[in-house]
């Protein structure tokens, strides 16, 4: 059994070929897709966060709106670039959205991906010491994790406008349990181990920022195992969660074939990203029986408890819901995921 959700990058384009032609379109359609996904039995609605781009950027209004219109589905991000974040303000927004959703928030955070602009985080008021982007993201994340514990740390005003509870004050609103629902988007085996040490869940996508020459799914499966080993060594008491993302398209009609039929020949790719080697996972697209056989060989999916399907949001809500339902109906039962 697996938790199966979708991951949307939230693209919009004024092109007449796009079903999402404005920011308003993509926001409202994201809400509709989350509602539809819950109705057809999916387990999660996750959204990518990019700044300075025609994509989803500020996640918490969207997550709160989805939380208010759904009752069961997990709601999350994959991922928020922590270089841009004020972690205390983020804790307030996240706490409010999680309370609206009844404790269903699953926040993926990370150092982020290549940007649309040069040093975009500096426009948000954040500059890394010695140019170390990764360290700044980790420092912001550590502050977030600390304040989500709900412990007081701020000295109260002796003459406040409203009465305070005794002792040091914490960030409000506080949502109990949210600290255990923070995921780190790890691009390497080493960052997965760091995430485990911090007590965060692991979120791994279709990109790894390293390459050892083995197939993508094998390298990712090794990353997952290293995460779990580091988690055990750290002595955490709860069981961690692990998600992987995949582009998976069951071909069950001619529209599917027109869009994704050629992807049945997809293979892993190796390239360079920010000066280093990176390995990109392939797209899975085929008729359900052959698709199930191929997915059964993916060792990283087998190792994870959560699978996030990347959806082509510019093809519209109905088509994306069709892709999710096709996997849940025609593929997942064959693999024992349902």
Automatic annotation (TrEMBL):
Residue ranges of every copy of the Luciferase-like domain listed in the record: 9-258
One matching Pfam family: Bac_luciferase
CDD domains assigned to the protein according to its UniProt record, in alphabetical order: Flavin_utilizing_monoxygenases
InterPro entries reported for this sequence: Bact_Lucif_Oxidored, Luciferase-like_dom, Luciferase-like_sf
Name recorded for this polypeptide: LLM class flavin-dependent oxidoreductase
